Structure prediction request, 665 residues.
Amino acid sequence: MSGYIVRRLISMVLMLLLLTLVVFLLFSVLPTDPARLTCGKACTPEVIAANRHNLGLDLPLWQQYWDFVKGIFVGRTYGSGTQTYSCDAPCLGYSFKRGEEVTTLIKQGFPATFWLATGAFIMWIVVGVSVGIYAALRRGKWQDKTVMGISLIGYSLPSFFIGLVLLYFIILKWELLPYPSYVSPFENPVAFFQTMLLPWIVLAILYAAFYMRLTRNQMLDTLGEDYIRTARAKGLSERIVIRKHGLRAGLTPIVTAAGLDLAGLLGGAIITESIFSLPGIGSLAVNSVVDADLPLIVGITLVTATFIIVANLIVDLLYAVIDPRVRLV
Amino acid sequence: MAVDVDTEARGADGVVAPEEIKGRSLSAIAWGRFRRDKTAMISLGVLIFLLLCALFAPLITSVMGLDPYEINRHAIDDIGMPLGCGKPDSAFFCGISWQHPFGVEPGTGRDLFSRLLYGLRISLLIAFSATTITVILGTVFGIVSGYLGGRTDAVIGRLMDIILAFPFLLIVLALSGVFTQRLTDLGVPEGNASRITYLILVFSIFGWPYLARIVRGQVLSVREREFVEASIAMGSGTRRILFKEILPNLWAPIMIYATLTLPTYIATEAVLSFLGVGVLPPTPTFGAILADSVQYMSIIPSYLLIPGVLLAIVVVTFNLVGDSVRDALDPRAGRV
Prediction:
């Protein structure tokens, strides 16, 4: 087991390095000149050239990549001579457009994204899994069909559609909730919940629909296994058969999906955050694309991808805990 | 649910009728199950109807005397709202007339019915092409990775991990400008042709790893079976084993994946249009129409409702057909 973890950790670090390389190369094709963005309209070519030099953009690509990776682990210093700016590790670059380190910007956006993701996650897991189990136990009956029909509709509508319709009716038309403006839950819990409720619901609708279907199919698969028949034949009560034998084995794919989905959301929910103007990583990502803020785009891509890779590892380890049939080798 | 195939041959008293036993291929059995599934047949009917509508959109609209690009000043008032809309006593379905059965677009007065038909055409074109490429890539990589194993498997596996780790929307947004330009440089006609190609490509590139994972898992179990061993013993080459022996056993998961992916591509195209990287106006797509309509939600509710419901119908019927395909192909279905 510990050998497995060590090997996985090493391969994870290699993956992340590879990932930075891919991200770096992918975005180096963008035609925007980051040096040009460093100063306003009245900008002389000399200033641009000087800034380009200070940013290290006149170096060959591999050198830039090396500096970038070095910055992540030990920090880096921009410029030379008297005008220097040091960016401490983990340094993902400096956004001249916003006059701020990329790491700082992402940290500022993280709380809103974190609360959005975790709140929605709890909602969709509770609703999705329990309704999925319910539908599986009523397989083929009208309850099953109704629930699955509703989930299909939730699954099929694009997120911006659900979001905007809810925004319009609940907030603008019926004024059931105040217009969303993000506050920290520690400052004003009431306003926090009022703001987050709709975004949570929008995300939860999207995901819960998928989890209902997944849970239902998973449960049906498991309940058809021979050992479930054995458990019933032993005379165990139906409740125990379903809880201890069915759920446990049926849950593994749900854990995988849940881990990866949560990790993906922690990297920002672009649509939901934009619609409800939450100052999270998703909004930041959209703005960075609009402004062609290259260091920021690269930084966000990397952070998001890292979340997913780490989640992958955690999920694989959880597997062995939940399902004793899984051997980690 | 589908009746068990075995019970079919039994008489009312449960005794097997002394009928001649006909051999039926697996696909014939699956089709038989599918045909008895009422939801499936209705969805399939709706789907075929919609496909025909999309295919013959130019014909249908010209017969009705409509044009998706024609600007109709007579259908809108001075401030550009469809006639009858925007007043306190406006009806829910304002702007709808015999001439324009789904109403008109605010600002231009373009006919919504014909725009939706044309939009359906483009959305389906994107979704179908992207699904086809996704399936080909996913199947080939999955089979090769699962059968060859070892280093090939490791390389393909890492490649998939990296692709799956990328934030799809952010990448698509950030790279859309450059890559559309690249495609134009490569000879794809400028404008929408490049943009549509770009969408198809990114959907396929980000989509195939999901299928490849499923296929790989299946291959791992199939390759240990006796008929593969027999084929190896008879001296078949790797290509023959992969595509003649193993591939036919994978049709079920591939079919299921394809029918369930297609609708998600339609919805994703809508999201991308909403974010402004989809097809350029005035060319209509579902996404473009929906994204435009949300601004007028309070004034012209039907403008939002009709495309929304139509999109939901398209996606839901595809999903229902996909589910039924799964049930029909699954030998254990209906026997739990």
In short: Chain A touches chain B through 46 residues (CB under 8 Å). Chain A has a mean pLDDT of 82. Chain A has two domains: 2-101, 102-322.
